[in-house]
Amino acid sequence: xxxxxxxxxxxxxxxxxxxxxxARQLDALAGYIATPVTARRGLxxxxxxxxxxxxxxxxxxxxxxxxxxxxxRAWQAGTRTPSRKNLAAIEQAYRTVRRENxxxxxxxxxxxxxxxxxxxxxxxxxxxxxxxxxxxxEFRTMNVRRWERIVAAWVADDEQELDEAWVDxxxxxxxxxxxxEYVTNIGFAA
Length: 190
Fold this sequence. Notes:
Blueprint: E1 16-17, H1 18-30, H2 40-51, H3 54-62, H4 69-77, H5 84-111, E2 117-123, E3 140-144, H6 148-156, H7 159-170, E4 182-187
Antiparallel strand pairs: 1-4, 2-3, 2-4
Helix pairs in contact: 1-7, 2-5, 3-5, 5-6, 6-7
């Protein structure tokens, strides 16, 4: 079995780690607010999401939004604007709370009562690699039936655990799994 790549991109190959592509796709499925936090509308939407209930506000505080209730009311009323540091904290808290809220629903959709979800793996980009050094890589599909570790690592924003959970799934490709450690894209739907 091949081991993990040590010097990826040495000859000009381009791509990203498979677990990063999976996290990007899960983020797309989570359905975040499209308007940026720097716009008034985006800020209001995130603040409404984080303060709509006591449970949501508690989760936002646990996620790192540590401002007073008075400051939150002032931001919502528009009498004060948050600093860049606070905008980043609002965005991070929003993404964390949204991931936690969506995780259970997303996990059920991905597992589909044990049937799993078909995943498309697009190989890395070798257009910049000299012809004799290019590998023959094809587009691959596989069915992932166990998403628990992947989704839990994504919710916790634990990149190391997400990498390990993804590699445990990719090993099902057989002896070629190391060729798909770096990819152009990974696609699936829920």
